[in-house]
């Protein structure tokens, strides 16, 4: 079951400059930085109430985030829903006719298992499911 919006993923060109904006202009606290090698990104996390902001800077030109920046510039990249059953959630989406990017969840940032649905079958929103690793 989907429990809540876990985080918004935001593509940025420069993590440190973006962190400065969130800290100084918005007064949010960066509570974690991490590199996710499999996705070729560096991430930084902020908390806004129960919802997190995940900043994503590409670490390589063939990173999915580099491609996104090239096409769209900086901005909201994905929305992530927290679930207590990521496998079941994925299966349910597929059974409902949704195309998935990952049939099998993989290890994302912040000690979570994650998987993405294809924006072509989610009305334009790259959608992530995430679940706390057990
Ligand atoms: Zn995410």
Helix content: 10-25%
Main sheet specs: 8 strands, mixed
Q: Provide the β-strand percentage band.
A: 35-45%
What class do helices, strands and sheet pairing give?
alpha+beta
Low-confidence stretches: none
Number of helices: 3
Look at the structure and give the CATH class. Answer: Alpha Beta
Which molecules are bound in this entry? zinc ion
- Quickly count the domains: 1
- In CATH, the homologous superfamily goes by the name 2,3-Dihydroxybiphenyl 1,2-Dioxygenase, domain 1
Please state the CA-atom Rg, rounded to the nearest Å. Answer: 14 Å
Mean pLDDT: 95
**Which architecture per CATH?**
Roll
CATH topology (fold) name: 2,3-Dihydroxybiphenyl 1,2-Dioxygenase, domain 1
**Major sheet: order of its strands?**
2-3-4-1-5-8-7-6
Would you spell out the secondary-structure blueprint of this structure?
Elements: E1 2-11, H1 15-25, E2 30-36, E3 41-48, E4 51-58, H2 64-72, E5 75-83, H3 86-95, E6 106-107, E7 112-117, E8 127-132
Parallel strand pairs: 1-4, 5-8
Antiparallel strand pairs: 1-5, 2-3, 3-4, 6-7, 7-8
The structure holds zinc ion.
Task: Please characterize this protein's 3D structure.
This protein is of the alpha+beta class and 134 residues long. The protein has a single domain, classed as 2,3-Dihydroxybiphenyl 1,2-Dioxygenase, domain 1 (Roll), CATH 3.10.180. 22% of the residues lie in helices and 42% in strands. It has helices spanning 15-25, 64-72, 86-95; strands spanning 2-11, 30-36, 41-48, 51-58, 75-83, 106-107, 112-117, 127-132. An eight-stranded mixed sheet has the order 2-3-4-1-5-8-7-6. The chain is globular and about 45 Å long. The two termini are 16 Å apart. 28% of the residues are buried. Zinc ion is lined by residues 7, 9, 54, 78, 80, 128.
């Amino acid at each position: 079951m989907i429990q809540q919006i876990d985080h918004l993923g935001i593509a940025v060109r420069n993590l440190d400059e973006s962190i400065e904006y969130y800290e100084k202009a918005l007064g949010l606290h960066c509570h974690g930085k991490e590199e996710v090698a499999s996705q070729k990104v560096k991430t930084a996390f902020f908390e806004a109430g129960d919802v997190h902001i995940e900043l994503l800077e590409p670490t390589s030109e063939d990173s999915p985030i580099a491609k996104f920046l090239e096409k769209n510039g900086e901005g909201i990249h994905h929305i992530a829903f927290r679930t207590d059953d990521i496998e079941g959630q994925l299966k349910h989406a597929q059974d409902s006719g949704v195309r998935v990017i990952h049939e099998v969840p993989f290890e994302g940032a912040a000690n979570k298992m994650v998987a993405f649905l294809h924006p072509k079958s989610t009305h334009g929103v790259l959608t992530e499911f995430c679940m706390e690793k057990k």
